Amino acid sequence: MNNVLLKTEMPDITFLRKGKVRDIYEVQDYLLLIATDRISAFDVVLPNGIPGKGRLLTQISLYWFRQMQDIIKNHIVATEVKDYPSVCHKYADQLEGRSMLVKKARPMPVECIVRGYLSGSGWKEYKKNGTVCSMKLPVGLVESSKLAAPIFTPSTKADEGHDMNISFGEMVKIVGQEMGEKLRDVSMKVYTKARDLAEKKGIIIADTKFEFGMFNNELILIDEVLTPDSSRFWSAKNYQPGKGQDSYDKQIIRDYLLSLDWDQTYPGPLLPDSIIEKAIARYREIYEIITG
Q1: What is the mean predicted confidence (pLDDT) over 210-227?
Q2: CA nearest to 209, candidates 112, 74, 88, 96
């Protein structure tokens, strides 16, 4: 895991686009999603990556996709390079363990967020207005409070800049009433099952973001699912409401960057080895806890 993959190079496969972390290719009738070791913070991709992070995130996603098959189908076609079209085989060193061959679904234009605890942008809005995504919450909650029941808080999908939290009513205007209810209900079911499974392993899933798509007129789960890049995982043992929690994600990196005189624009600063090592240990720890 010492080698770090920051950029894929597969010249004879059609390259579609590059996300903050993932490179996406088109192979025959499928998409090839590759999780690199790039890391972004404050919407800036940093110059050095976290070795092996892409593999860990992919394996966590695959674990959860399997767990949720009784609730909703997903986009996976194959996860072993030997099962991919032959044009991919010579790139096994870039693909093994960190890629998925997936169906070409039409992504829903909203992100589906479920919150079981008050944190992040939800906590910011609650402090100001007593609401989260325009939903009134009880008075007297503190940062990291457990909510009486999980809430569904969709957001827009921004190509540039930040996604915006929207109300359920605003989401319905985008996707329609029936689809809105379906997205909400499936998101809540997937979150609830994941929350219960994680709790048995001593992990709190404070909140998470799902992406869905349409394939052959059927709603399926796409993208990544329940990874430290799309969810807040906390240790149940160390949980203390009334403050921010230590989460199994890139918080170590964010905290380090906040200690620098950096204006959060490109290019980001190089991360020291000590911070990279702490971050990879954190990702590896949550991978081992979740997948067993």
Answers
A1: 97
A2: 112
